[in-house]
């Protein structure tokens, strides 16, 4: 079969996918608020700019060669042909509208039942937010210019090939797709491996290459704006319905089922995180609620098409508990993951990916059975291999990319820049005019409590 196929798109599917693409785009500004509120006041603009900068860099690379690397014809089992759709060649043209005079239907390049350009846009948003997620691990100390270079190199070397492995199915955009989707047959409906495990381990590697913030962990780093954090979590939850239900690539029953499982798993994870806080620390916090929301969204992402409501509740509860406990690992092992990318995205992605092998049920759209539903270990080992392969590849490739940037243009801000704040030194701006308000220097009022009050720094 020749790709792309030419035909008339389905109006309902196209409308839903345009909405879904816009919802996923909204997630990156939501992430910017979520991360921006968690840092000190003197670094909030820099944190927001790292997410917004990723939108620019990845957006340009995606239409040049990223889409082709992800969804072009498989080359050597590693990556799609980067020249097949270079500059989106072959995806524009044809009869865009039905000819009312002749009755001839529209005839344009399609992916399934939707215009190929809509699929390109939808998948572009996945690429953008995956890169942006990494930035939370290196808050307060990574220079903006090197971040943009890292983002472009990492998207090219890590994300585009992994997206090909996970998201490129045979006979959809090319005759042969990626090995995880088609040969291993691991289930990752919307990106537990390609997005969250991938970004989570990359965040850990980049944090280790950069080194700890000056004064960490002895110096407390308190979130400067918890309403920002909750606003970001709310925007993420809202946009995530496009992320998961949109991955049905149509307005259909799969979208409906994944919408429901996404909602209930997230609700369960939030409650589970708050329960852990209440038992461990004696109080439930706003930061904990926001973090629980994100943990649940992460964990249900790979599994939303393969579980029923009971399975979704189990995945959400497990993610809420395990991620709430995992965010404290950085103090035990001494890695400075500033905003808990490892504890939430890496751990949550692993939980959701592996639990497909436990609680998947044939009544769900994916129609497979996990261990607890009589399916044995067959799906579980597939999930484990898929998660492990992405984790290992991302670990090695991210190390290479980070070291290239470090030893060419440098990664880390100077000690003086960290002290003054990256908003001032990197962007010549400040988020808040404390002098006009009668305060002191930017950030001085926000430096007396831990960054995550729900975790004991022992």
TrEMBL record:
Pfam families: Ammonium_transp
Domain Ammonium transporter AmtB-like: 15-432
Predominant localisation class: membrane
Annotated membrane topology: Multi-pass membrane protein
Transmembrane segments: 15-37, 44-65, 114-135, 147-167, 187-211, 223-243, 255-276, 283-301, 307-329, 341-360, 380-405
Keyword Transmembrane helix found: yes
Keywords: Ammonia transport, Membrane, Transmembrane, Transmembrane helix, Transport
SUPFAM superfamilies named in the record: Ammonium transporter
Subcellular location as annotated: Cell membrane; Membrane
Sequence similarity: Belongs to the ammonia transporter channel (TC 1.A.11.2) family.
NCBIfam families to which the protein is assigned, alphabetical: amt
Protein name: Ammonium transporter
Biological source species: Rhodococcus olei
Lineage: Bacteria, Bacillati, Actinomycetota, Actinomycetes, Mycobacteriales
């Amino acid at each position: 079969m020749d790709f792309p196929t030419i035909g008339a798109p389905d109006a309902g599917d196209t409308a839903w996918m345009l909405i879904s693409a816009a919802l996923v785009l909204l997630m990156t500004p939501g992430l910017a608020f979520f991360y921006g509120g968690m840092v000190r006041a003197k670094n909030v603009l820099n944190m927001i700019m790292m997410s917004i900068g990723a939108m620019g860099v990845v957006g340009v690379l995606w239409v040049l060669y990223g889409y082709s690397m992800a969804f072009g014809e498989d080359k050597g089992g590693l990556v799609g042909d980067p020249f097949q759709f270079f500059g989106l060649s072959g995806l524009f043209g044809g009869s865009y509208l039905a000819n009312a005079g002749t009755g001839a239907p529209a005839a344009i390049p399609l992916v399934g039942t939707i215009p190929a350009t809509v699929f390109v846009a939808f998948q572009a948003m996945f690429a953008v937010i995956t890169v942006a997620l990494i930035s939370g691990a290196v808050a307060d100390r990574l220079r903006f210019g090197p971040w943009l270079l890292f983002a472009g190199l990492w998207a090219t070397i890590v994300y585009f090939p992994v997206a090909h492995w996970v998201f490129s199915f045979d006979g959809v955009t090319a005759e042969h797709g990626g090995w995880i989707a088609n040969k291993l047959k691991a289930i990752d409906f919307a990106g537990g491996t390609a997005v969250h495990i991938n970004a989570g381990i990359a965040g850990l590697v980049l944090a280790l290459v950069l080194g700890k913030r000056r004064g960490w962990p002895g110096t407390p780093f308190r979130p400067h704006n918890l309403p920002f954090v909750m606003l970001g979590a709310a925007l993420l939850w809202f946009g995530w319905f496009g992320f998961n239900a949109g991955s049905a690539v149509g307005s259909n029953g799969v979208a409906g089922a994944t919408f429901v499982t996404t909602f209930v798993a997230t609700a369960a994870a939030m409650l589970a995180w708050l329960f852990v806080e209440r038992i461990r620390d004696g109080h439930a916090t706003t930061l904990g609620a926001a973090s629980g929301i994100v943990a649940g969204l992460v964990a249900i992402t790979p599994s939303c098409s393969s579980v029923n409501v009971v399975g979704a509740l189990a995945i959400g509860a497990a993610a809420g508990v395990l991620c709430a406990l995992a965010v404290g690992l950085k103090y035990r092992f001494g890695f400075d993951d500033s905003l808990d990318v490892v504890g939430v995205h890496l751990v949550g992605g692993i939980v959701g990916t592996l639990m497909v092998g436990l609680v998947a049920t044939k009544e769900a759209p994916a129609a497979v059975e996990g261990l607890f539903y009589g399916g044995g270990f067959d799906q579980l080992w597939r999930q484990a291999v898929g998660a492990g392969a992405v984790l290992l590849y991302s670990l090695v490739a991210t190390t290479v990319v980070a070291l290239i940037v470090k030893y060419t243009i440098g990664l880390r801000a100077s000690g003086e820049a960290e002290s003054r704040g990256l908003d001032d030194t990197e962007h010549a701006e400040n988020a808040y005019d404390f002098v006009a308000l009668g305060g002191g220097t930017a950030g001085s009022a926000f430096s007396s409590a831990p960054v995550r009050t729900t975790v004991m720094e022992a």
